[in-house]
Amino acid sequence: MSGLPENLAYTDSHAWLRKDDDGLVTLGVTEYGQSLLGDLVFIQFPEIGAHIDEGDTIVTLESVKSAWDVLAPVTMTIEAINEELVDQPERVNEDAFGEGWLVRVRVNEELDTLMDADAYKDFASE
Domains of the chain: which residue ranges? Predict the structure, then answer.
C-alpha cells in the first residue's frame, strides 16, 4: 500500500480524515477501501446539518459488488457533501484522496485517537 498520505488520520472502516485550515474536517474513503468495493454506482449521503453520533453511518457506498457503510469515528455534524459524486460516484474510485472526498464535517473532539498512516498500513495488511 504505497502512496498513503501521511497528513491524514485513518479509521478501521477504511475512512480518512483531514483537518482543514477552516476548522472543518474533510472525510473520504481510502484507496484500499474503495478497491475492496469495486466500481461505485451510488452514494447515499446524509442531509447537511445532520448530527452523526460516533459509530453511526455517515454515508453508504454502493458498488456493483456490495454496499458498505462508512461509520463515524467521532461524533460530527455534516457541513457539506461532495455534490459532484451524486452524478459521478466513480470519482471515489479514480481519486480517493482528492476529488473523491465524501463529506466535510465539524467535530468537537480531537482526531488523535485515530490511526496514522503507518498504523493504517499495518491494519490494512492484516
Answer: 9-124
Nearest 10 degrees: Cα torsion 33, 36, 40, 41: -130
Phi first, then psi, for residue 68 (nearest 5°) are -145, 130
Q: What string of pLDDT tens digits covers the 126 residues of the chain?
A: 557 899 999 999 999 999 999 999 999 999 999 999 999 999 999 999 999 999 999 999 999 989 999 999 999 999 999 999 999 999 999 999 999 999 999 998 888 889 999 999 999 987
Contact 29, 103 (CB under 8 A): no
In CATH, the architecture of 9-124 is Beta Barrel (2.40)
Most distant pair of Cα atoms in the chain: their distance: 37
Q: C-alpha grid cell for residue 12?
A: 478501521
Predicted structure pTM score: 0.93
